[in-house]
Amino acid sequence: MGQLQNGEWHDVWYDTKSTGGKFERTTTTFRNWVTTDGRPGPSGEGGFPAESGRYHLYVSYACPWAHRTLIFRALKGLEDHIGVSVVHPEMLTEGWEFRTDFKGATGDGLFGLPFLRDIYTKADPNISGRVTVPVLWDTERGTIVSNESAEIIRMLNGAFGGLTGNHDDYWPEAMRDGIDEVNERVYHTVNNGVYKAGFATSQSAYDEAVVALFDSLDWLEDRLADKRYLMGDRITEADWRLFTTLIRFDAVYHGHFKCNRRKLVEYPNLWGYTRELYQVPGVAGSVHFDHITHHYHYSHEKINPHRIVPIGPDLDLDAPHGRDHLEARDVA
Ligand SMILES: N[C@@H](CCC(=O)N[C@@H](CS)C(=O)NCC(=O)O)C(=O)O
Hints:
Layout: E1 3-5, E2 8-10, E3 55-59, H1 64-75, E4 83-86, H2 116-123, E5 129-130, E6 135-138, E7 143-146, H3 149-158, H4 161-164, H5 176-191, H6 193-199, H7 203-226, H8 237-253, H9 268-278, H10 289-299
Parallel strand pairs: 3-4
Antiparallel strand pairs: 1-2, 1-5, 3-6, 6-7
Helix pairs in contact: 1-3, 1-8, 5-7, 5-8, 6-7, 7-9, 8-9
The site of glutathione has 13 residues, from helix 3.
């Protein structure tokens, strides 16, 4: 693991010394938007119109943030319009690599480059910062549109309907404030909360993160007692953002990140809800437990110095989800 400083690679682990042992996620560099007609989006510059075959996603199957973009690509019928390259699950001193010696790792499908950082320096030779997945690459302008998953999923949700005819909407206008409110708590205490617990280097930083995480899981468990999905009777973006953390919970976060007050399977509502989302057509194909389990345990040498990859729990994600008694309606 490392980062770029003025286009040069430096192998450094996360700095938690300056923050009293707390892991703080840095902000994202590329913030442009693909829009229907190329007009600028909420941030960055314009000139990125939705076109078939023009954009390419760089992802890791292990990463929960990249996973969101793969789910939206599948749900929105974008497989034939947006290509994908999958990095190797081991993220070591060179950062994400395009090695292909692991099932499902594709290499760099556009340029045949060895490292993900080469894609970042192709976009900006003097770039500084972390080299993260996902990356949405524009093959026409030869640059990165965005490396912020929260924004990439909104582009995939909203910009390509004219091309695909798929107008399913996971961020409906009338629900946006409510969705954003749920996202905010879920992001800080669950999505990023597991990382704050796992990467903490002081007891107090770990305690703070792990308590907030399980408070939120209790809150979500209650919320899902009479709601089929987080926002009620229709699936929204908020559900997919939560799903990619829940699906990794028992396999990785419970043990490797010490989020072990309870397992996900011990929450009846959350566990049924996770199975239902997993069973939505197109979603199971985006879940790769081999990459997930291998990545975390092998890459984080500071947490797991012998790099033993555990066997992992047997999870029956295809079991009936048992949530049919709660009302549901279409996303269109
Ligand atoms: N804000 C980014 C965060 C993405 C992120 O942190 N990805 C992780 C993998 S799960 C990564 O690539 N980390 C490499 C690093 O931090 O050096 C997003 O949501 O798109």
